Recover the amino acids of this structure.
């Protein structure tokens, strides 16, 4: 379905691009909000991401799904805006347990889970988020992060194992 919309949008059909936007905007918004924790800033960053996607649609090669491509654009927009924060990549490192998603679980569990996830190396943390929270395939993760699908699978396996160790209180080096 996206392929037909992409082709039509490339030919100047604004309705086709609007349809792509409507299909993917909610997920992009949730992802950006989870990174920045501020709905107003997230709105600005999403708007900038969609403008870049519209302008760069001709460069979309189709190596990955359109959703993966727009998420990569959003990630780059967030990272480029990150220079106003203490560290350039702070936004990308702070995507676990978004501030807006306070669930019904006990505070202690959330704190333990947050600490466990924060203890993971950044690569494992990113793959775990994209696969288990966002539902991306290993192929899409590989394209977005510039790694092999096998690396994505390995990082996910290691991340889950490490979380189990940390949460069970039996950490090993």
């Amino acid at each position: 379905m996206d392929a037909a919309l992409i082709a039509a949008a490339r030919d100047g059909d604004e309705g086709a691009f609007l349809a792509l936007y409507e299909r993917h905007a909610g997920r992009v918004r949730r992802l950006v909000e989870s990174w920045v924790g501020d709905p107003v800033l997230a709105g600005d960053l999403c708007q900038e991401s969609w403008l870049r996607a519209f302008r760069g649609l001709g460069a979309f090669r189709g190596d990955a799904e359109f959703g993966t491509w727009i998420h990569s654009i959003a990630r780059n927009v967030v990272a480029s805006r990150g220079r106003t924060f203490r560290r350039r990549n702070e936004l990308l490192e702070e995507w676990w347990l978004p501030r807006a998603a306070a669930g019904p679980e006990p505070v202690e569990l959330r704190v333990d889970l947050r600490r466990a996830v924060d203890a993971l190396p950044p690569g494992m943390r990113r793959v775990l988020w994209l696969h288990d929270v966002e539902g991306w395939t290993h192929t899409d993760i590989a394209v977005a992060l510039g790694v092999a699908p096998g690396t994505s699978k390995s990082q996910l396996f290691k991340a889950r194992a490490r979380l189990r160790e940390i949460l069970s209180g039996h950490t090993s080096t």
